[in-house]
């Protein structure tokens, strides 16, 4: 692993180390010292890549949000009919709920920051706009907004309530009920 000034992957390692740290200890525990040690970079080079802790967290969460939008694109991109789009949404919900716990933790940490700090609310708004835009390729704007909320809610419930998980059929039925007018 290169650690000199010419290391082209240093910034990406720092961002990955930041997300790893957040998953393990939460966003409140992030410090330049901890992230530099985790990423294997000299502490003195952190300001070269990020103007401060907020810039580091925003960039890390921006990359994470972009990856989740990619999951939306992957699931919704191939849908050609309203019925296929409903099935894609149901599959998306289960992919997000049953996927790596890391994604759930990062999502909730971002939402906690957004609840307290306007600059993170802006980031979540951009994320929501992207996901709604993808849903609007298959549903009207109001339905897309409601579906986005349903996705978030069901993912959280599915991930945290293992006692009463939704089957894919039950999830699909909820999506169909919401989208039928």
TrEMBL record:
Signal sequence extent: none
DNA-binding region: 31-50
Keyword tags: DNA-binding, Transcription, Transcription regulation
Stored SUPFAM superfamilies: Homeodomain-like, Tetracyclin repressor-like, C-terminal domain
Location of the HTH tetR-type domain: 8-68
Annotated protein name in UniProt: TetR family transcriptional regulator
Protein source organism: Streptomyces pakalii
High-level lineage: Bacteria, Bacillati, Actinomycetota, Actinomycetes, Kitasatosporales
């Amino acid at each position: 692993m290169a650690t000199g000034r010419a290391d082209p992957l240093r910034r990406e390692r720092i961002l990955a180390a930041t997300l790893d740290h957040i998953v393990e200890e939460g966003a409140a525990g992030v410090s330049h010292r901890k992230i530099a040690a985790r990423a294997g970079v000299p502490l003195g080079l952190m300001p070269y890549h990020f103007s401060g802790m907020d810039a580091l967290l925003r960039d890390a969460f921006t990359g994470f949000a972009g990856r989740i939008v990619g999951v939306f694109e992957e699931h919704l991109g191939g849908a050609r009919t309203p019925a296929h789009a409903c099935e894609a949404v149901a599959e998306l919900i289960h992919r997000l709920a049953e996927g790596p716990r890391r994604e759930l933790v990062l999502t909730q940490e971002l939402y906690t920051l957004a609840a307290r700090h306007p600059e993170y609310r802006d980031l979540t708004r951009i994320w929501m706009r992207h996901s709604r835009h993808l849903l609007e390729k298959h549903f009207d704007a109001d339905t897309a907004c409601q579906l986005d909320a349903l996705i978030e809610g069901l993912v959280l419930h599915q991930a945290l309530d293992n006692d009463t998980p939704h089957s894919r059929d039950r999830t699909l039925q909820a999506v169909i009920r919401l989208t039928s007018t």
